[in-house]
Automatic annotation (TrEMBL):
Keywords: Membrane, Transmembrane, Transmembrane helix
Domain of life: Bacteria
Membrane spanning residue stretches: 33-51, 63-83, 95-117, 129-146
Name by which UniProt lists this protein: Uncharacterized protein
Keyword Transmembrane recorded: yes
Length: 171
């Protein structure tokens, strides 16, 4: 049920251009979500050297799960971007992005981790747990998306002075 149908059930009158404005806002938000999904997949995949590229050479081989988990994380972060309201917290989505990156990235290629923990510690303890860290990142992104989607659906749409619906959940 779209906003116009909800308002009709509640007896709220809408301006003639409100339905078009809602569709336009949905199209813009969908385009932003698609851009974030594609950008995340391309940037993190390239920096993590999940495929051959001239920028980064991977020191440890990528397993079979990394690209699938990166794709799932990218789609979830894109959907989160499309649903997210500007005034909401993004801590869970941000943490999922960091965990997902650490999970798919090469531990030896990550200079910060290498300086903090050393190569032997990373290969001994971190490498076997890396894929679970990426899966945890995907799970956190799914949790952030579900929480944001539920709260966006429960938030009433405010009215602007002209009487046209300017739904904060659709911008």
């Amino acid at each position: 049920m779209d906003i116009s149908q909800q308002q009709a059930r509640q007896g709220v009158e809408t301006a003639p251009g409100a339905r078009f404005a809602d569709r336009r806002a949905i199209a813009i938000r969908s385009a932003k979500g698609l851009a974030v999904a594609l950008g995340t997949f391309g940037a993190v995949g390239t920096v993590s050297a999940l495929w051959d590229n001239p920028f980064v050479i991977r020191m440890t081989p990528a397993g079979g799960w990394e690209i699938g988990l990166l794709a799932a994380l990218s789609v979830l972060l894109g959907l989160y971007t499309a649903v997210r309201r500007p005034a909401c917290s993004i801590r869970t989505a941000g943490a999922s992005g960091v965990l997902g990156f650490l999970g798919v990235a090469c531990p030896i290629c990550n200079k910060v981790l290498l300086l903090l923990f050393g190569g032997e510690l990373l290969l001994t303890y971190f490498e076997p747990l890396r894929i679970y860290l990426a899966a945890l990142g995907v799970a956190l992104a799914a949790l952030a998306l579900v929480r944001e989607w539920r709260s966006a659906r429960l938030t009433p749409a405010p009215r602007d002075p002209a009487g046209i619906e300017a739904s904060a959940s659709l911008r």
